Amino acid sequence: MTLQLGETAPDFTVASTEGNIQFHEWLGDDWAVLFSHPADYTPVCTTELGAFAKRKDEFASRGVKLIGVSVDPLDSHNDWVKDIEKTQGTGLNFPLLADKDQVVADLYGMIHPKADPKVTVRTVFIIDSAKKIRLMLTYPPSTGRNLDEILRVIDSLQLTDNHKVATPVDWKNGEDVIIVPSLSNEEAKERFPEGWDEQTPYLRVTRQPGRK
């Protein structure tokens, strides 16, 4: 199955380290980061699960839930969790789906035959409170995911959902933003009374809304 940005994230019911998860019900009105692993006991993913667990509160403060997925069975997950706690210094504090029948992997297009038809690729999905897919990012097996980048994208998406702005290259929360071209100068004056730096008619840089 090929998914695209803006589509509804497929629903599923799968066992996890925190019991059966019916995804849409579990998500509720929150956002989610759903991220896949090719198998249990993989070294890069072990470090990632520990890092997500340590930074769970940073995601929660943005209204974002974490949920991992691997095609290995639940008893394997439970043993892997012990290794994560031993090596990363933290227990797993969010559900890890046991997708042994590849239900989630098939729904989310995580099986790439040219990579390995037996395992999932390492993809991150950011899903919003309307259950729409807002980002898909696939990593190679040898490269650990960048949690700062995932948080940065969430900050950008949540900001731009609420204001007529976009975020420029390498933007971080609190920095200047760009007024969207579809907003006329007259409309922009109402929304951005502090004004803006008009570098070109289509590139108008202004203070991030709500920044103190």
Automatic annotation (TrEMBL):
InterPro entries: AhpC/TSA, Peroxiredoxin, Peroxiredoxin_AhpC-typ, Peroxiredoxin_C, PRX_1cys, Thioredoxin-like_sf, Thioredoxin_domain. Belongs to the peroxiredoxin family. Prx6 subfamily. GO terms for cellular component: cytosol. The active site is at C45 (cysteine sulfenic acid (-soh) intermediate). Gene3D superfamilies: Antioxidant, Horf6, Chain A, domain2, Glutaredoxin. GO terms for molecular function: thioredoxin peroxidase activity. One of its GO terms (biological process) is cell redox homeostasis. This is Thioredoxin peroxidase. Keywords: Antioxidant, Oxidoreductase, Peroxidase, Redox-active center. It comes from the Bacteria. Residues 3-159 form the Thioredoxin domain. Thiol-specific peroxidase that catalyzes the reduction of hydrogen peroxide and organic hydroperoxides to water and alcohols, respectively. Plays a role in cell protection against oxidative stress by detoxifying peroxides.
